[in-house]
Amino acid sequence: MSNQADDRVIIFDTTLRDGEQAPGCSMTLREKLRVAAALNDLKVDVIEAGFPAASPGDFESVQAIASEIQGPTICGLARCHPDDIEKVAAAVKPAESQRIHVFLATSEIHREYKLHMAKEEIIRRAVAGVQQAKSLCAQVEFSPEDASRTEPAFLADVVAAVIEAGVTTVNIPDTVGYTVPGEFANLFSYLKQNVAGIDDIVLSVHCHNDLGMAVANSLAAVTAGARQIECTINGIGERAGNCSLEEIVMALKTRADYFGIDTGLDTRKLYPTAKLVSTITGMSIPRNKAIVGENAFAHEAGIHQHGVLQNAETYEIMKPADIGIKANSLVLGKHSGKHAFRDRVQSLGFDPSDEELVRAFDEFKKLADRKKELFDADIEAIIMHTGGKQPGPWSLADLSFSSSKKAGAKAEVTLIHNDGRSITASAQGDGPVESVFIALEQATTVTLKLKKFQVNSVTVGEDAQGEVTATAEYNGESYRGHGVSTNIVEAGALAYLEVINRIGRRIESGTPSTGGDKTKTAHI
Ligand code: KIV
Ligand code: ZN
Fold first, then answer.
1. Distance between CA atoms of 307 and 326, rounded to whole angstroms?
2. With a 6 A CB cut-off, is 177 part of the ligand 1 pocket?
3. CB-ligand 1 contact for 103 (6 Å cutoff)
4. 3-state class (DSSP) for residue 424
5. Which atom of ligand 1 is closest in space to residue 238's alpha carbon?
6. How many angstroms separate the CA atoms of 499 and 394, rounded?
7. Is the pTM of this model over 0.90?
8. Which fold has domain 394-509?
9. What pLDDT was estimated at residue 436?
10. According to the model, what pLDDT value does residue 524 have?
């Protein structure tokens, strides 16, 4: 499509803002920092790190990411309110490259029912917001929310006004996932033709997936001149989600012959990043998900397998290695040393700190004692579950349980607190998992309401590790924990204990919710 060989599209990742805003996807500060580091490794251009005015926790996490992540531009979202804009400016200040993203809805339905504002007032506020942001930060982005349902002529007036006010990027959102590719491309062409100064700013696209067309609509916008794509890892986001980063990046790479536009991303980091976000949020990746789903490169039909063995290109349009998927080969054993372990971890696309590596190696050794064969997926699971985790206050020292039809289920747990206390509690329940959970609650005196209990198998075989994600409610807030073990009940216990530990750390530190743990309400 593009004639310029060096044409480049900016990848603006909003996993930590629009993605994190989705129910069940909230992350703690540490988790956000881990995701931001992975996005940095992936070489995204812009990280939208949060919405600082939404909560003190959001402010803190945007500020922490701006301080720790050097490379990408760090951006924060603001309504066209002076206080929101000041908060973003303060939060992104530590970053080398900073951006304030202001937004205001422009469609008739939003003007009339949400904002109660006439067209002139919308333009006045958008311009004032951009001018204030511009006085605080060189890079300013403006989004006319619900742009795809806004009258095109009015949209053009708004875009012209914010360009005049000094904006550097104008983002055109399909906020409710309503548009279709041809129509959206026409809207971009219309703006290109009718807005003075539009070639001097970056035109951006932001699509939601309500009709399953977020990636297609974003690509259509690129063909009509958009040079920034807003997207999220695994497509997480409000309702049906946002444009999926891995899908759009691989579409541009695989069909470079058609689009002629590069993203500059290290695509070999796509798979580890997708796995990380899935583990952290507990949103599992569907098996048939394009690019990173378990079946994306699996060939079941004999005729396909035969073709792939002769020449992979018969049925494969991308190489698994380009996405960072390694053959699930048998890897290390219990005699492998730390160096071999580190090499393997790095070749899988992870870059843990020394402290994380020591913890992960410890877990690896324990697992190697229990499991006959260790695969890459086992190592991935260890890294996901040990990295970035805050220790304690409680750790699981021992666990026993029994279950029979006649006698029912019983469990006993022994926990050790950071302060040296050791507590043993036993309980009976409806099954071994419930008994363990009740025993954990008794030992820690924290009572939870379990909301979700998800089990995944990390690899195949009867000694495969089980990965459990538990979501539970405490004082009306939602917390998540993960656990992995060859014993599913133990994996459940570790996940539940992680939830209890998160609550314990909050109580001990006396801090209000960081916004990372709780399901947020203060949003757009
Ligand atoms: O979907 C949307 O309109 C948004 C804007 C805030 C960019 O997320
Ligand atoms: Zn959005």
1. 20
2. no
3. yes
4. strand
5. 1
6. 11
7. no
8. Double Stranded RNA Binding Domain (3.30.160)
9. 96
10. 44
